[in-house]
Amino acid sequence: MTKLSVAVITLNNEKTIQDCLASVSFADEIIIIDGESSDRTIVLCHAFTDKILVRPFTEYAAQVQYALQNCRHEWVLLLFADERVRPELAAEITDLMSRPVNEEGFFIARRFYFMNKWIRYCGRYPDYRFRLVNRNSVQVYGSKGQGLLHCSGRTGKLRYDMDYNAYPTLFDSLAAMNRKTTQEAQTMVSAIKAHWYHFIFPPCGTFLIKYLLQQGFRAGGRGFLLCWFFSFSQMVLYMKIWLLQHPFLPGAGGNR
Q: Which candidate in 5, 216, 221, 227 could, as Cys together with 29 as Cys, close a disulfide (CB 3.0–4.6 Å)?
């Protein structure tokens, strides 16, 4: 039977880490890569594993690379602390690891939860992520978002889903947006020059695509809020890029 390591990337995730780790109790090893959390994340992790490595957070790719290097087993399931393995997915992975595996990795669909409800529209499902991998056959790339693993060999898709509950409340959504747009702006600042029209057209286009073409209206009030949230995030991102490119303007904050 093939042994499985589960690597979890954490940073101030005390609200979600226990559900995440409880969902992977079937693994042969659980390893935590923590980006210097200031809340109770590390304390809560000790109830599930003693292998907790603290590494200053710079970007997702660096954390993922560090996780793969420190896993004991060849096969690794990569998770972030706001994700959970559903029971049926756990059973599928356990069965997969019990027999010879011809693939080098597997994509897993994610169920996106917004304000504690699964959103099937707005382009959020199935949202396949390449997460169950042979660590000797993958490369880590990029720093934007969480789509970080690449494999040139044979891959497959698992039948069952995992849960992604990054935004339990609207407050959590706004806090995450502020953090992620700052990270993305710092990455994109040298690649694009922000203009005034970026504050209008990309956000409006995002809303129309997600609400109409991707049928966000079918998710009711939450769907409308989520589409507005993605649209607003686009505007904030371009504003932050613009401020980074004009650091000496009053209030920009770049000269502090």
A: 5
